[in-house]
Amino acid sequence: MIDWEIVAENLPAFAGGLVNTLILLATVIVSGFTISVPLALVRSTRSSYVSRAVWLFTYVIRGTPLLVQLFIIYYGMAQFEFVRSSALWPLFRSPWFCAWLALTINTVAYTTEIFAGAIRTTAPGEIEAARSIGLSRAAVLRYVIWPSAWRRALPQYGNEVVMMMHATALASTVTIVEVMRVARDVYTNYLVLTESFGVAAAIYLCLTIGLTALFRRLEKHFLRHLSRSEAPNAKVQPAERLNPKVA
Amino acid sequence: MRMKFLASIVATTMLAGTAFAEDLRIGVEGNYPPFSVVAPDGTLSGFDIDIANAICAKMKKNCVMVQQEWDGMIPALNAKKFDIIVASMTINEKRKKVVDFSNPYYDVPSRWVARKGDYKSWSQEELKGKTIIVLRNSPRAEYVAKNYPDSTVLAVDKEPAVYLELAAGRGDIAFGSSVVSAESFLKKPEGKDFEQVGDTLFLGEDADGGVGIAVRKSDGALREEVNTALSSIMTDGTYKQLSGKYFDFDVTPQSAKK
Amino acid sequence: MFQSYLPMILEGLRVTLSVASVSLAIACVIGLIGASAKVYGGMAARLSATVYTTTVRALPDLLVMLVVFYGGQILLNSISDKYGWGYLDVDPYIAGVSTIGFVFGAYLTETFRGAILSVPAGQIEAGFAYGLSRFQVAFYILLPQMIRHAVPGLTNTWLVMLKATALVSIIGLDDMVHRAGLASAATREPFTFYALIGLIYLAVTTFSVLLFGALEKVSSRGVRSGGAA
């Protein structure tokens, strides 16, 4: 049924591919997150030119296929003489940089929208209360808006991270040897579906399960105030908990 | 009512199936000048195409050319999209594990291509740490991987891309077919700053002396027919006439010269 | 130079749109079947539907596409060998729409499942109380009300699907992305053509959003929205 010899023979290649997948994913998520947060803050301010500019950016990126974005950066940038002779060329000629850049731009667009949406839905009352006790705009952002927005955004953001992990498979089209590329090569050389794509599928399934579990943990931590299992213990009276000195 | 409808669909497909019985479907690429070229309007031409037509005539079958991207060539053969591959596929051990080959029908050497003046030879030391561009999953790729462990390999999925990436500056030196590099790249304006480095080289024992026509492992009889047709066109002068159209040197494989 | 390739690119657009629409149709059919299996089916039906949606959504689209593409052809070959039918060609177009339809059928299963569950049970009960047959209840009561809840998910899936069709160029289908590749190879202007098709995708996306917005309005006729008095 499954030729384990072929699987064993190609396991090192798959391991190498997995490492590349993870490196790409990690770098993209870190850079994506770092850029999205300030961008989301800008995007959620009401009608300013900058906010509209960010909207335009996210609209364009979300409205075009990632594959096309990748090709524009990898193949398209090389078209211009000024790029090829500039100091940036060593970057643009590298498939890794191009893949990282394309995936980052893509995730920034989606993540910015997710965070901006969460920021916008912060209860206005909370913000008013914070301002009324004298917190500066920056402090309101840091202590009131962001924590609650992050909690709201978490499920969707987790989804986006899983989507990005799937998107790394597209890096195989620009010569990056990650899991998908290894699978395709094994298929071309051995003509076996299970030992090639099956192994890749198993790897991706594990990654998805892992990431989903990770985000479930994060949700548990950040949204624990909503969890029902922390309902008051019947043995302890509320009054006692408020004032421990009372007998 | 529904059964009748289904039955008529099945019947039509069966008829369609039988219509192909006498056709020989041939997988070709179209991206390997001068062996295989596709014009913007879709017409195929080139040495591979001519050979394919010639052996078809000898086998008295109706030729149907099916254009296929190089990357999926062998999977497509296996999936029965066509029955033979005439696409300058080099015979080597790795491929022989999954398909069978006819006798070789031509043999041209490989050549290194780089920017003028960059390299004097292709020695290991000179290419240490450099990026070599080569066609993915091919005998040349294996050759490079085996003999140049200290160099980075950039593997692309079709031969023209090898030279395009070289021109774009994504690699330092390319390793490809001597004829194709000359024909599709060096003769063109984008290749004017590049040259072939060092002598031609044949890949030796890794590649069994030339390119062959690939058939599925289960098609032994077809392979024999193809071999008969091939030796026939080589002996009756058709081969010489066809190769004379494209090459002013002898491309006959060593094994056929015996 | 540019102008001479425009017709070719636009023909590619026609292919892309065609692939996307047919895939959507296939995905909708699969989605309805899957959703019914999950909501009304027995243990076996629910289990298979769950395995289907979980696996497909946990894997990259490209992987599922390649597996369905190669595997489908091999399966078809073994079937036709068994019955002696001769070679049945699966042309890239059929392969493309089947794979995308298969992939997004999983997403639509979840969308439709949510939509079915959002239709108040009372409506269904009332339908049966009136003596309507199962088909009549499904077609006249469930379906129209379900559409309203399914539209946002459907819109989202359509937009994602539209972009996913770009991947069929990898399995050899001659769509807009593939043609842009051919044009850029011939003119050595990849940026021009990929940027062009990027803009075309954007235009189609914008148009789709407007279209689905109208669909949402139509399907929400007569529904009072909460909020402003």
Nutshell version of this structure?
The complex is a heterotrimer of chains A (247), B (258) and C (229). Chain A has 247 residues and is an all-alpha fold. Chain A is built from 11 helices and no strands.
What topology does this entry show?
The complex is a heterotrimer of chains A (247), B (258) and C (229).
Chain A: H1 4-43, H2 49-62, H3 66-76, H4 81-84, H5 89-92, H6 95-120, H7 124-132, H8 137-167, H9 179-190, H10 193-222, H11 238-242
Helix pairs in contact in A: 1-2, 1-6, 1-9, 1-10, 2-6, 3-6, 6-8, 7-8, 8-10, 9-10
Chain B: H1 2-19, E1 23-28, E2 31-32, E3 36-38, E4 44-45, H2 47-59, E5 62-67, H3 73-78, E6 84-92, H4 93-96, E7 99-101, E8 110-115, E9 131-135, H5 139-147, E10 152-156, H6 159-168, E11 173-177, H7 178-186, E12 194-201, E13 207-216, H8 220-235, H9 238-246, H10 254-257
Parallel strand pairs in B: 1-5, 1-6, 9-10, 9-11
Antiparallel strand pairs in B: 2-3, 3-4, 6-13, 7-13, 8-11, 8-12
Chain C: H1 2-40, H2 43-58, H3 61-83, H4 92-118, H5 121-129, H6 134-164, H7 176-187, H8 190-219
Helix pairs in contact in C: 1-2, 1-4, 1-7, 2-4, 3-4, 4-6, 5-6, 6-8, 7-8
> Ranges of chain C with pLDDT <50 over ≥5 residues?
none
Helix-strand pattern of chain C: HHHHHHHH
Q: Tell me the total number of β-strands of chain C.
A: 0
What is the helix tally of chain B? 10
Q: What percent strand of chain B? A: 25-35%
**Cα separation of the termini of chain B:** 66 Å
Total DSSP E strands of chain B:
13
Profile the largest sheet of chain C: none
Question: Span between N and C termini of chain C?
Answer: 59 Å
Oligomerization category of the chains in this entry: heterotrimer
Q: Please describe the biggest sheet of chain B, giving its number of strands, its sense, and whether it closes into a barrel.
A: 5 strands, mixed
Mean pLDDT rating of chain C: 86
Percent helix among the residues of chain B?
Answer: 25-40%
| SS-derived structural category of chain B | alpha/beta
Largest two-chain interface: A-C, 36 and 38 residues
Summed up, the helix count of chain C is 8
The portion of residues assigned to helices of chain C is over 70%
Strand order of the largest sheet of chain B: 5-1-6-13-7
Strand content of chain C: under 5%
Given the helix and strand composition of chain C, which structural class is it?
A: mainly alpha
